[in-house]
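Per reviewer request, we include the raw input and output of the structure prediction for the construct analysed in the revised manuscript.
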Amino acid sequence: MSLARRSLMEAAAARFGWRHAYGDTTAVDELLTEQTETAYTEAADHAALATAKNSDVLAVQPGVLDVRGRVLADVLYLEGVLAGARNRGLPPELIERLEDAVDHGHELTVLLADTVRTTAALHAAS
């Protein structure tokens, strides 16, 4: 593929949040490392903001609700990916990993919902 065509595709992918598939584990590992480094770099800003902002139990609630909504949407998307993988007869190892990710994601949404309920209960009790 020409460099101009590839750059255009990469620009479109970046603009619309598309990802392309990586055929070797080295490229996957590089991407995963980049994602992790970016998340940890941004985490310092998030921690500073959260420390200043979250002064009582109700102040915590909107952030947790926001995260739960995004996690739930992503988990439901992963359920679609899992359904497609099952319907296409993809390898069992991949199906198992997707099932684990979906199950874990649902567990996380339950924990986040419990956290939101706790903020309301603690506020009501005070």
